[in-house]
Amino acid sequence: MAFVEDQVHHVAAAVDAAAGNPVPVLAAPGAGVNNVHGGIRLESEERDWANLVQDAVTEISEKLLATDATEYIRLRAVCKPWRSSTDNDNRPTWEPCFFPRNWVMLQEDEDDDDATPAEPAALRRRRFVNLRTGATLWIHLPSFEEYGFFLASAEGLLLFYCLRTETVRLFNPLTTATAILPGFSGEPGLEGEPDLTAAGIVVDRRNAPAGDPIVVPNVVLVLVSSRRRSTVILCAKPGDDHWGTVSAGVLEVDDGGVLPFDGGLSQQGCFYIPTYHGDVLRVELYPQPHLVYVARPPGRARCTCGAHNVSSYLVPSLDDANRTGENDGMLLVRVFADDEIYVLRVHLGNGSYTQVPQDDNRTIFLPGLTLLTDRFPSLVGEEGYVHVNERIEDYIGNAV
User: Fold this and answer.
1) pLDDT digit string (tens) for 90-117?
2) What is the distance of C-alpha 218 from the center of its chain?
3) Sign of dihedral through CA atoms 142, 143, 146, 152?
4) Domain boundaries along the sequence of the chain
């Protein structure tokens, strides 16, 4: 039972961390050490963890899944009884709770190359880092021949583009769930090799004829063409034979005809886009894909400067679960031409913003990553710092 004990202690620590409680230090079985946690003295003794009450396992698994899908997977791997206690989970594959949120794949040089990689497919292994905890995972990716080269990520999900089959693949590196989307051949608005500035997931919940819930992942891509000085937002779901466009009719267009945004953030199955005015919009799917305002600075607080004077980005806040009522998990970062930077917490409930302290325990890498600084020794002294046009791999690549 030593393996089970080790996993139980790890899972218990994860549950306490998710609840914001101090993490108890549990002694090994038979060590003869007493520990106190929450005012209760815990005797170190052999326990039959495999026969833990099913309701308790289910409750623990829900807490873990709400925090990190990897901890949920770890719990199911502890023993057969624990796995069977969660076998009745009939949630659809693409529910956001199964997304590897807070995990990012560290880039290798060949990830940006559309040529066949030199390494064998069996060795296509990549390192993933949890931006909240600093934990590391090594995961084997699908073969280049089948999936192609890495395109983008959204909420930890990976997008690949295969030139051979002219398809886009959506891949969950934790569950290995895969969805196939159309390629880009002949799509309007993609002339001139536009830059992909953001990718996101918008989940569409519906019921099958039998009444079972279905979750369909809609992939949203924001592309900017420097040649045409235009921005296009594409949207597609598995089974589509081409990409559609997201209507941006609610937006004001500048004198050059350019839509006032160039990025976005995927959160809990929704996709948000910031404008250089400081607004935040969300992609809605019905009746046709379109944008709606969800946060907008009032009156004079709204910037009227042009896109060449300021850039706006949305990044995860990584705030603790007990602060959910105060924010919606995202920060708006505004970078002005004179290098002045403002970081604002977004409140979608009332469409307002609050300033984030400069000494905050966060390091931001634009366009879309946030790390908890104290989890990465190599980032000591970087609290509250915003990195523009810098690679996260150059700071933590060899330190995790």
Assistant:
1) 788 899 999 998 999 998 755 544 455 5
2) 15
3) positive
4) 51-85, 96-109+118-394
